[in-house]
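Long-time lurker, first post. I've been practising inverse folding by hand and with some scripts of my own, and I keep getting stuck on stretches where the structure tokens seem ambiguous. Below is the full token string for one chain I'm working on. Before anyone asks, I'm not after the true native sequence, just a reasonable design that respects the backbone. If someone could post their per-position residues I'd love to compare against what I wrote down in my notebook.
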């Protein structure tokens, strides 16, 4: 059985205040072309369909069009909600859509029933587990000890009572320990959202969403497909792709990728103003239309540098300097520091400032637990 694994579409996202909707329309059409070429039995979208829990109307229209085109291809499509989605909004109409082969994960209620497909080797059971926090699972398993994300996912998976003699696929949206993150992902309080990969031992393939860089965890059996587009300059060196998974008889699995070519690439370039504005530097390349982060190495600031550079680099997103002044400037920008640290890290900094030493492991654990409860309340 052949599967196309996608995740983290983030439809409606803006990057450095620049709308990405046209890029997203383009990449979804290219994904449809790959689907037509590969002829899979099912398509998986492992969460974060939208970038906001209340997406703009234009984003909903783009996804609606993508779903309509998928339904015309007579595929089975499995879609779960991620941490950026509203599970209630994404699940709307799911029982009506089931008949068309579009399966939307319902709001988590403690029970995850499999969707069963068959091929020449027998059944393949698909379990759709949307993004859950410990509080979401604790509500339905009051007697279980659920103190962490690992506990929560382990409890949710345990309640599925999977038959390991069959082939089982889990679709979920979590941060699995060991995954390499990017700047564009939402980091949970103190890194407390880690899920240990051992909770997935009973599955033949785990289609993950949440982490933007395509990667395997432990083995190709547990995989993040990554985003179809680059959503921050920390992803500039990522090779975006569609993951193609083929399940043979029980125990047989092959995973490969098909590259995705964006409408605009996201690149970082550096050099002096004269170097970067020389026609020989950019002529014959895609740099003029790429989304660019430019680092100027001139010792003196260039007047109106952004406006001047944008004449050449039409989609300049970010400009900064790397020179003697910026490297030796010891002044800390307090606002940027606050933005970069999690609440637990900020508390740790305050504790060290007041007490002259860091928190103990026990103290840190208490703060993380308290912060997580507060964070859940805000959500």
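-- Answer (accepted) --
I ran through it position by position. Result:
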């Amino acid at each position: 059985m052949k599967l196309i694994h996608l995740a983290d579409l983030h439809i409606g996202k803006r990057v450095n205040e620049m709308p990405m909707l046209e890029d997203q329309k383009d990449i979804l059409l290219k994904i449809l072309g790959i689907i037509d070429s590969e002829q899979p039995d099912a398509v998986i979208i492992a969460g974060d369909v939208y970038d906001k829990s209340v997406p703009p109307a234009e984003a909903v229209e783009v996804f609606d069009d993508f779903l309509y085109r998928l339904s015309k291809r007579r595929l089975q499509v499995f879609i779960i909600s991620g941490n950026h989605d509203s599970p209630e909004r994404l699940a709307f109409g799911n029982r009506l859509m089931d008949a068309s082969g579009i399966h939307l994960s319902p709001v988590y209620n403690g029970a995850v029933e499999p969707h069963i497909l068959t091929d020449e080797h027998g059944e393949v059971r698909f379990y759709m587990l949307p993004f859950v926090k410990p509080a979401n699972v604790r509500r339905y398993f009051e007697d279980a000890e659920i103190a962490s994300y690992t506990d929560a996912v382990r409890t949710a998976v345990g309640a599925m009572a999977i038959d390991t003699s069959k082939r089982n696929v889990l679709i979920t949206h979590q941060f699995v320990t060991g995954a390499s993150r990017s700047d564009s992902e939402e980091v949970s309080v103190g890194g407390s959202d880690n899920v240990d990969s051992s909770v997935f031992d009973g599955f033949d393939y785990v289609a993950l969403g949440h982490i933007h860089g395509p990667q395997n965890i432990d083995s190709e059996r547990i995989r993040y497909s990554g985003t179809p587009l680059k959503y921050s300059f920390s992803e500039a060196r990522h090779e975006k792709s569609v993951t193609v998974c083929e399940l043979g008889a029980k125990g047989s699995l092959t995973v490969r990728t098909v590259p995705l070519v964006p409408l605009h690439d996201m690149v970082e370039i550096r050099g002096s103003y004269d170097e970067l504005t020389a026609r020989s530097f950019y002529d014959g390349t895609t740099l003029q239309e790429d989304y660019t982060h430019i680092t100027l190495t001139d010792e003196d600031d260039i007047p109106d540098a952004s406006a001047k550079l944008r004449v050449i680099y039409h989609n300049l997103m970010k400009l900064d300097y790397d020179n003697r002044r910026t490297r030796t400037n010891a002044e800390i920008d307090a606002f940027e520091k606050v933005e970069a640290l999690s609440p637990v890290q900020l508390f740790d900094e305050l504790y060290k400032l007041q007490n002259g030493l860091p928190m103990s492991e026990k103290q840190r654990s208490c703060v993380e637990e308290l912060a997580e409860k507060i964070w859940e309340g805000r959500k």
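A couple of notes from the structure itself: The longest strand covers residues 122-129. Residues 330-336 have pLDDT under 50 and may be disordered. Happy to go over any region you disagree with.
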